[in-house]
């Protein structure tokens, strides 16, 4: 679902009749809650069967566009290719669950140390793209990820967290974190791109059919000086359509647009100079490939949450709630045991850095706010061969 409701729709119309009471209670708790909403317990029927730790896979569900960045010949063309790839990731990240599940669902809140591994195979010489994800914090929830295509010389490293609040009948989500894309250049050297994240607004709560709109502005700043500024608006702005955006690409040291793009990020957009199609995400995406469940470590997302996910998919919310509580209670006990032993959880694949020098250098070019951010640096300690695992014992 991705639009405004009609006056004839009734409150809670998208809620199963047996769940209307719990949905009403949930709405009241949201409206009266002060602080971060991520700690609230959502009714089981509004839960997604997917853990938040899987979400970084949305960055590369169009691996051809990711690989194409390395084939661009000039700084300008690389910035255009990065912008095209980034806009094309938004549908998967923010509307794909609506199409599968009928409305936006709350992802499963990952446990500390949760892991997710996947890849997209080499097809037609585009190279294999690999993904490593680790839940590096539980309170607040922070997910770190590393995506690379070694044969193309591409590596994306980033982390994301969410700070949520309630305002004007909507949930407002401030996405915290950033991503750095590094591109190996043919003549040696490296070009880097800082990618900031848009804010989200979750509407449709009153009707029990939540959906996401992107809001405000995000940026893609290249170390070469080229800057993409992306402005997001919902229904009633620009073209009068949901999921609208405008993007402007400016050259180093200039505020004059070299390229302009406009459209809806969940369907198509166009180059305003030529009228040609810029992005088209109406074609099928490529799901990430993962190993068999029986070979997974207990902390890998799909194995950890398998019984919860089955309950949600089958509509057995009692079973889903019971299995979810079991996992959460085990985690609470694990934290108590660590505290009693004077120990702390050790990250497996990432190292926390309090200040990211690449972010600081690139954010300065467009007066980015905040001027500095922390980051999680990948340790390069995971085999990129899908059949080989290097996970906790």
Automatic annotation (TrEMBL):
<dbReference type="GO" id="GO:0016020">
    <property type="term" value="C:membrane"/>
</dbReference>
<dbReference type="InterPro" id="IPR000648">
    <property type="entry name" value="Oxysterol-bd"/>
</dbReference>
<dbReference type="GO" id="GO:0008142">
    <property type="term" value="F:oxysterol binding"/>
</dbReference>
<feature type="region of interest" description="Disordered">
    <location>
        <begin position="316"/>
        <end position="340"/>
    </location>
</feature>
<feature type="compositionally biased region" description="Basic and acidic residues">
    <location>
        <begin position="316"/>
        <end position="339"/>
    </location>
</feature>
<dbReference type="InterPro" id="IPR018494">
    <property type="entry name" value="Oxysterol-bd_CS"/>
</dbReference>
<comment type="similarity">
    <text>Belongs to the OSBP family.</text>
</comment>
<dbReference type="Pfam" id="PF01237">
    <property type="entry name" value="Oxysterol_BP"/>
</dbReference>
<dbReference type="InterPro" id="IPR037239">
    <property type="entry name" value="OSBP_sf"/>
</dbReference>
<dbReference type="GO" id="GO:0005829">
    <property type="term" value="C:cytosol"/>
</dbReference>
<protein>
    <submittedName>
        <fullName>Oxysterol-binding protein</fullName>
    </submittedName>
</protein>
């Amino acid at each position: 679902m991705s639009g405004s409701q009609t006056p004839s729709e009734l409150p809670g119309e998208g809620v199963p009749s047996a769940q209307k009471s719990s949905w009403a209670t949930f709405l009241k708790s949201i409206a009266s809650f002060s602080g971060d909403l991520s700690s609230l317990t959502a009714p089981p029927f509004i839960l997604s069967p997917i853990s938040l730790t899987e979400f970084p896979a949305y960055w590369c569900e169009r691996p051809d566009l990711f690989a194409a960045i390395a084939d661009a010949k000039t700084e300008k063309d690389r910035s255009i290719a990065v912008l095209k790839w980034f806009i094309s990731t938004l549908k998967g990240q923010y509307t794909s669950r609506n199409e599968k599940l009928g409305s936006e669902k709350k992802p499963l809140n990952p446990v500390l140390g949760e892991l997710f591994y996947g890849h997209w195979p080499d097809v037609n010489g585009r190279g294999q793209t690999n993904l490593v994800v680790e839940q590096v914090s539980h309170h607040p929830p922070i997910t770190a990820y590393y995506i690379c295509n070694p044969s193309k010389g591409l590596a994306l490293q980033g982390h994301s967290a969410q700070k949520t609040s309630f305002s004007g009948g909507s949930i407002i989500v401030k996405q915290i974190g950033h991503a750095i894309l590094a591109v190996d250049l043919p003549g040696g050297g490296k070009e880097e791109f800082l990618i900031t994240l848009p804010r989200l607004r979750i509407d449709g709560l009153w009707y029990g059919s939540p959906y996401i709109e992107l809001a405000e502005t995000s940026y893609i700043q290249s170390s070469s000086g080229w800057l993409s500024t992306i402005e997001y608006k919902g229904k009633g702005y620009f073209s009068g359509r949901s999921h609208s955006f405008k993007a402007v690409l400016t050259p180093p040291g200039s505020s004059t647009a070299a390229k302009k793009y406009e459209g809806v990020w969940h369907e198509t957009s166009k180059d305003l100079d030529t009228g040609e199609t810029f992005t088209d995400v109406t074609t099928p995406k490529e799901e990430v490939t993962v190993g068999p469940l029986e070979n997974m470590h207990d902390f890998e997302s799909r194995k950890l949450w398998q019984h919860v996910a089955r309950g949600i998919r089958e509509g057995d919310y009692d079973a889903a709630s019971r299995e979810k509580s079991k996992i959460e209670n085990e985690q609470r006990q694990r934290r108590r045991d660590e505290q009693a032993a004077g120990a702390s959880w050790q990250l497996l694949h990432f190292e926390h850095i309090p200040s990211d020098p690449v972010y600081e250098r690139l954010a300065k070019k467009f007066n980015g706010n905040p001027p500095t951010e922390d980051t999680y640096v990948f340790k390069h300690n995971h085999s990129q061969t899908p059949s080989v695992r290097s996970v906790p014992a």
